[in-house]
Predict the 3D structure of the following.
Amino acid sequence: MLVLLAQTSPGTPTGPEFGKASPLGFLIILILLAGTVLLVRSMNKHIKRLPATFEPDHPEPDQEADEGTEHGITTRAEEGGPDGPPLRT
């Protein structure tokens, strides 16, 4: 039986329902297309707002404040870890 199934070719699909799509499928495709267009437009707006480079040569006011956080790094001795004084509980 398996050999018989393998020998028969399915041929071209024909029939009264072949090639027809429902209006619901068309509506879903249109909704997906509209969502894609809106997402691409939003992405382009966000990309246009990005600076040309991210070099810190001429930082903006908010970037100057961010770079100050690097100076406050603590070590284990200051935290009271294994290299420092014992922690109080």
Remarks:
- The first helix runs from residue 2 to 7.
- The two ends are 79 Å apart (CA to CA).
- Residues 66 and 72 are 11 Å apart (CA to CA).
- Helices lie at 2-7, 23-49, 61-67, 76-79.
